[in-house]
């Protein structure tokens, strides 16, 4: 099997078909609604929470015509129904997430960690969902509690880089230096300096206007940030 392409989709306002009405379908419905998708459910029977969600429901079996105008299909039905959905969707070039049924899937929903503007997604290609869950929990534990501050510094730095034409290869080292400045706030040598001064210094370092050498983040953060400080990827 070829490698999967990790991809984040914008589903807000786009039609998604959910085939199935059981507990798994109810869970997937919440995920889709959180993404702003325009969901329609097709299933002879649905759980009360699906009924209460307010989404359109066709209480019958799946029909190929249900795929008209659909961007994505989530099949959470018995395998024989998922197979019908997959065959009809393949002919129309529509991706199918067949829950716990990788043989009938062309798209896989991942284990997700979300925190303050940062989203991490983990997938085992539908073959080991239990492992996906364990990895998600592990990443949730090690993700820094102040990652929102990282996000703020990185967002402001990117604006400055684009304005000033900073080359891609130079951006990650600059960001690492700026993130190190956040942790200077807790260093004994810097405790007498006002926090706003550090905030200005972090922004200045991210923009590349400081001559200081790279500092080290404390504890486990050193490995975390250094691992993503390699040049090459887009900022």
Question: Brief description of this entry?
Answer:
The protein is of the alpha/beta class.
Mind describing the biggest β-sheet?
A: 5 strands, parallel
The coarse overall form would be elongated
Write down the CATH topology of the largest domain. Answer: Rossmann fold
Sheet-strand content, in percent, reads 5-15%
The CATH C-level class name of the largest domain: Alpha Beta
Distance linking N and C termini? 31 Å
Instruction: Bin the helical content.
Output: 40-55%
Poorly predicted segments = 210-220, 222-235
What class would the helix/strand composition place it in? alpha/beta
* Major sheet strand order: 3-2-1-4-5
CATH superfamily of the largest domain, by name, is NAD(P)-binding Rossmann-like Domain
Work out the radius of gyration.
23 Å
Average of pLDDT: 83
The total number of structural domains is 2
Query: How large is the count of helical segments?
Result: 8
The arrangement of helices and strands along the chain is EHEHEEHEEEHHHHH
């Amino acid at each position: 099997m070829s490698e999967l392409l990790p991809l984040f989709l914008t589903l807000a306002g786009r039609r998604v078909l959910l085939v199935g009405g059981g507990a798994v379908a109810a869970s997937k419905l919440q995920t889709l609604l959180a993404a702003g998708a325009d969901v329609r459910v097709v299933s002879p029977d649905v759980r009360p929470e699906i009924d209460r969600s307010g989404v359109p429901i066709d209480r019958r079996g799946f029909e190929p015509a249900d795929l008209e105008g659909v961007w994505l299909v989530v099949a959470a039905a018995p395998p024989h129904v998922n197979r019908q959905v997959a065959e009809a969707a393949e002919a129309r070039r529509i991706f199918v997430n067949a829950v716990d049924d990788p043989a009938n899937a062309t798209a896989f929903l991942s284990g997700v960690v979300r925190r303050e503007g940062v989203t991490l997604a983990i997938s085992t290609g539908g073959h080991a969902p239990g492992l996906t869950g364990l990895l998600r929990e592990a990443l949730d534990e090690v993700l820094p509690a102040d990652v929102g501050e990282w996000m703020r510094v990185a967002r402001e730095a990117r604006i400055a880089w684009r304005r000033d034409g900073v080359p891609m290869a130079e951006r990650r080292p600059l960001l690492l230096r700026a993130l190190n400045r956040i942790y200077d706030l807790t260093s004994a040598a810097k405790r007498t300096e006002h926090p706003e001064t550090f905030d200005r210094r972090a922004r200045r370092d991210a923009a590349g206007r400081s001559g200081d050498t790279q500092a080290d983040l404390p504890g486990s953060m050193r490995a975390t940030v250094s691992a993503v400080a390699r040049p090459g990827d887009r900022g």
